[in-house]
Amino acid sequence: MARVLVDSPLPQLDQLFDYRVPARLADAAVRGARVRVPLRSGGRIAAGWIVELAERSEYRGELSELDDVVSDVPALTPDVWRLARAAADRAAGNASDVLRIAIPPRYVRAEKAWRSVEPDPGPLPEATTIEGYEPGRVERGIADGERMAPAADARPVRLSSGAWVGGWARTVAQAAAHTLAQDRSTIVAVPDYRDQEQLEAALAELVDQRRVLRTDARQTGPARYRAFLEATGDAARVVIGSRSTVYAPAARLGLIVIVDDGDALHAEPLAPGVHSRDAALIRQEQSGAALVFLAHSRSVDVQRLVEVGWVHDVPLRRGARPRVVLTDQQAAPESGGARIPSAAWREAQSAIADGPVLVQVARPGHTPMLVCDRCREPSRCAACGGALAVPRGGGAPVCALCGTVATAWRCAVCEGTKLRAAVVGASRTAEELGRAFPRSRVVVSDGERPILRVGAEPQLVVATRGAEPIADGGYRAVLLLDGERMLLRESLRVAEDCLRWWSNAAALAAPGAPVFLVGVGGAVGTALATWRQPAWAGEELETRRVLRFPPAVRMASVVSSHDRLAAALERVRGIEGVDVLGPTPTGDEGLERAIVRFGYGIGPEVAQSLKGEAIRAATERRRPVAGRRPGRPPVVRVRMDDPDLP
Fold first, then answer.
1. φ and ψ at 142, to 5 degrees?
2. 310-365: per-residue pLDDT in tens?
3. Residue 605 and residue 236: Cα distance in Å, rounded?
4. Chain centroid to CA 207: how far?
5. Which of 439, 437, 469 lies closest to 456, judged by CA?
6. How far is residue 551 from each of residues 412, 487, 542, 544, 559, measured CA to CA in Å?
7. Are 390 and 367 in contact (CB under 8 A)?
8. Strand blocks (E) in 306-386
9. Which pLDDT belongs to residue 390?
10. 0.70 exceeded by pTM
11. Which residues of the chain have pLDDT under 50?
12. Distance CA 643, CA 273 (A)
């Protein structure tokens, strides 16, 4: 008898169903295999996973038979199943949704090729010292399965191969090599492929490349599936990739590393929306492996874990600290609010003679936002009302929605006919700097035209936040522009995000090189200048405690029709410690949204209650109305720890 999890988004099917294993499938029906099973409702055939095998079932009726075994490869390992089940329960979601993220689609040719080759993972590395911290501190933490938040080395370092990487990449590589030397696996989740490229270069110095497995969305489907299959083996590996890597199978897991957990790319957009940080915390508790949160700027979420004693702070013993200059604290502030103050301008002119200079801007494009020159009203298209912007290549303003060229624009408020830039993008900044530095090469790096590395030759690198390439030897100067505009974004985490963006850019500077933060002071600017991001995170956490905002508390968004939402909120209000905000209309016809706020201790009870309402709504049958076609039953959509709140 096989207990099967059906691969379905329906909440009422998020449980194990018993199926009889026919004799013809007895050898292939192994634990963790992909199968096809019949569903009695509608006579459909559905995909599923064998989670358990047992001699008998508690069900007294006649069991249906497995329809087929798609593959006898046990792709669903026991530890991944436990993680998926726990993560789904925490998020009031379905385990099959988590497994869809964790396990890549099957490719028959890749599976056959994997079966035909005897695995040769290569030799284990020698024991490696993890530099920059108290001798033996991180090594002891790994051996004891400790949860740690070490400060990242904020400087570029040169590898023996001649390549330059961030100091954080060398730290992670040393920790992974140290763990691998004990014949234990390491899982590393990084925000994106840029970080992954640096980490791979650092690992190549210490670990046989046959021991390193890469799993990310940039791979082809067969390559990703092949790497996943190799991870299911008995050899210890270093598995690196993006947020879904935290679910990868790993033999004798000894270390989990989450790099820059505050990055929005660690938040899973697919249901049930489990953040890689939360999945890593669950897996660490289940496996006993060590867990490391490494970042230049500590997230407020990790700071909460440090303050409650669940994660331990590990300070740097030695390492470079960027030399940050706050322009609003200069003795002679610039009149007129110049975009680049004279002190930063002089430093850039001097530094570019020795090597590359980085200029970070808020937005890509040329002039992504235009306003009326007279009244500052945002410009709108006369045809459709869309926002006007200057294209990347320059020229006349065009509508961002319909593409109409604004040749004879007139302000609807004051009848003005002149436009001015409200926000200057990377392309426009590059044009202006190119005229100011006519003998220097200007390079633009953004989401559409990413550049991973630049050389040590003199050049101006204009990059949007998060797209800064690493420079050989580090940047000779860094200018952080548009800080005030970045802080105007409407988000609870805007200051936290800005501090992280600026810290990551500052960490690309050469030791001793100046880093100018233009137009930003206050607590955020001081935290960057003094490089005391954990202290700022602690103050921010205290503010959120007073306001009862995440991560001091947890929040969930619940969307449904008016009556169904009222029923769901009535049940959840019965839990002590819960308060509800709303409901408010969502903009979709007939739907409303409410925000449920609760403490961490009652999280499981709240999740169970909200999921119960989702199941009740999905299985509800409404009486047919004469003359009308039967509609779909009302749906309750639940998103625990919604990143879009508040």
1. -65, -45
2. 999 999 987 678 999 998 644 444 433 346 788 888 888 899 999 999 999 887 65
3. 37
4. 26
5. 469
6. 43, 20, 10, 7, 22
7. yes
8. 312-314, 323-326, 356-361, 369-372
9. 79
10. yes
11. 329-338
12. 9
Phi, psi for 106 (deg, rounded to 5): -80, 140
Distances (CA, A) of 636 to 66, 176, 583, 630: 32, 43, 13, 19
Whole-angstrom Cα distance, residue 468 to residue 447?
10
Neighbours of 11 (CB within 10 A): 23
CA angle 312, 548, 611 (to 5 degrees): 90
Termini Cα distance of the chain: 47
Q: Look up residue 144 and give its amino acid.
A: D
Angle at 609 between CA 608 and CA 614, to 5 degrees: 95
Cα–Cα–Cα angle for 293, 291, 493, nearest 5°? Answer: 30
Question: Which pLDDT belongs to residue 336?
Answer: 35
- Token pair belonging to 86: 């726990």
| Residue 341, preceding peptide bond in cis (omega within 30° of 0) | no
Rounded Cα–Cα distance for residues 302 and 307 (Å): 9
- CA–CA separation, 266 and 83 (whole Å): 17
- What's the rounded Cα separation, in Å, for the pair 398 and 384? 12
Q: Which positions ≥6 away from 419 have C-beta within 8 Å?
A: 370, 371, 372, 373, 379, 388, 397, 409
Cis omega (within 30 of 0) for bond into 22: no
Total residue count of the chain as it appears in this document: 646
The reported pLDDT for the residue numbered 439 is 79
Q: Which of 363, 339, 326 is nearest to 515 (CA)?
A: 326
* Residue 1 and residue 19 in contact, taking contact as beta carbons nearer than 8 Å: yes
- What is the pLDDT, as a whole number, of residue 392? 63
DSSP E strands, 284-440: 290-294, 312-314, 323-326, 356-361, 369-372, 388-389, 398-399, 419-423
